Amino acid sequence: MSSRRWSVSTALVPMIVGFVTPMALEAQQVAYAATAVSALDSVTQAAVARELVRARTRGLPVQPLMAKVREGQIKRAAPERIRIAVAALSVRLDSARSALGPTSTAAELVAGADAIAAGVDQESLRTVRTASGARDLAAPLGALAQLVASGVEARRATRMIVELLKKDAGPRELLAFGMAVETDVGAGVPAEESAVFRLRAIETQGVGSERVTVAGAPDIPLGQTTTGRPSGGTKRKP
């Protein structure tokens, strides 16, 4: 390691500690963040440090950005790709906060950023915020992101989530809905077809029904898809 790189790495450790501590993270998370950044090359370190400064200044959570750095390291991504990924996530977090409001929690902002990455626009995020009222948005937005990522058109997926929220669906039911559609699509069922079936199943059983399986899907005949055709996909747990 060159003396120049060592000096940059050493300087960044207290800087990162300063960025993360105000976000009320545990001491070990702060140390982890500093270590993750210091393992990068000097150019990427400086770029990531700028993103952290910008995020903290704008009141955005820093931990998701550090998690993105670590994800890139684990995947052995090129430094430039890590820098781009961190910058892109910062933009999505900012966009999510603009749509969801300044009082949004870190978990809500991360869920909103994931939804944006899947193809959801800010108007849809605001729609879900309005429909949720004072309830936590992490689960509704997580389910929305799953639906869109699975292939359901964004506006249609938003309407489905809003419909469930109006029926007082809880986090477990919302996430089960998204997971069920994802599982169906993996088994070869068209996304829109699965989403409509799953939504109707929840409505028929009633919100709060205990017939939401551990695997994350409303109860359907074992070994069948939402269309009733035999499936080689995930089987219902007992």
Secondary structure topology:
Elements: H1 3-20, H2 27-38, H3 42-57, H4 63-74, H5 79-100, H6 106-118, H7 122-132, H8 138-150, H9 154-166, H10 171-186, H11 191-205
Helix pairs in contact: 1-2, 1-3, 2-4, 3-5, 4-5, 5-6, 5-7, 6-8, 7-9, 8-9, 8-10, 10-11
Concise structural overview:
With about 240 residues, the chain is mainly alpha-helical. The protein is about 70% helix and about 0% strand. The chain has two domains: about 100 residues, no CATH class; about 120 residues, no CATH class.
Structure description:
The longest helix is centred in the middle third of the chain and has 22 residues, at 79-100. Helix content is 68%, strand content 0%. It has 11 helices and no strands. It has 238 residues and is mainly α. The chain folds into 2 domains: 1-100, no CATH class; 123-238, no CATH class. Mean pLDDT is 78; it is low at 1-32 and 210-238. The radius of gyration is 21 Å and the shape is globular. Helix 10 (171-186) packs antiparallel against helix 11.
Identify the notable features of this structure and list them briefly.
single chain, 238 residues, mainly alpha, 2 domains, 11 helices, globular, disordered N terminus, disordered C terminus
Sheet of most strands: none
Strand content: under 5%
Global mean pLDDT = 78
Secondary structure class reads mainly alpha
Written as H for each helix and E for each strand, in order along the chain, the element string is: HHHHHHHHHHH
Helix content: 55-70%
Low-confidence spans: 1-32, 210-238
Provide the gyration radius in Å.
21 Å
Shape: globular
The DSSP helix count reads 11
Total separate domains: 2
* Number of E strands: 0
Termini, distance in Å? 56 Å
